[in-house]
Design brief:
Lipocalin; 2 helices; about 180 residues; single chain; three-stranded antiparallel β-sheet; disordered N terminus
Length: about 180
């Protein structure tokens, strides 16, 4: 029994230390707490806005979480007395020390209020405002599975760490006399 459990226990304990996950994954119907980067105002004459930028709330109350450095792009529209937010793309950067992974993909998600209804009640006397201090649940309608993308910055950092004094990545001054020395 111990022979079988020991490798599983060791694997479980070491997995967080082995580096990044291969993919950034969320199941269908995952909920992540978000807020807007900038306040949003809609009214009768401006009842739709594209390129709305959202970010996950640190230590949010959703069923799942995302890396701290994420942005989601979507659109907002006015529907009666509610602002409906839909998300269409997501980019996240997951960092561990000096290393980072970039995840970016199209997504399908929508904002729900605490009452569980689609859209956020944010209208008063024909003016609808949603501040960046108000959070909401973004529910992903489909599963998310994003492979890490090429990260040129990480590749350069790796070259710098591995360089042994040769090349531009980590130059070590050559041993030569100073120009003022007369030999």
């Amino acid at each position: 029994m111990f022979k079988i459990a020991a490798p599983i226990l060791v694997t479980t304990l070491l997995t967080p230390l082995l580096g990044f996950a291969d993919t950034l994954e969320l199941p269908p119907q995952a909920q992540v707490e978000f807020s807007l980067i900038e306040p949003l105002t809609l009214n009768e004459s401006g009842s739709r806005r594209d390129d709305v930028v959202m970010r996950p709330v640190t230590d949010g109350n959703g069923t799942h979480s995302l890396p701290q450095h994420c942005v989601v792009i979507g659109s907002a529209s006015l529907d009666d007395e509610r602002i409906r937010l839909s998300a269409t793309s997501m980019t996240c950067i997951e960092t561990h020390g000096g290393d980072s992974e970039i995840y970016s993909s199209e997504i399908a998600a929508a904002a729900y209020d605490a009452d569980g209804r689609y859209g956020l009640p944010a209208c008063e006397e024909g003016r609808c405002e949603l501040g960046n201090d108000r959070s909401f649940m973004l529910q992903f309608t489909e599963a998310v599975s994003i492979e890490p993308q090429a990260n040129p910055s990480a590749e350069l950092n790796e070259q710098r760490r591995q360089a042994e004094g040769d090349g531009v990545a980590n130059p070590i001054p050559a041993e030569s006399p100073a120009p003022d020395d007369a030999n």
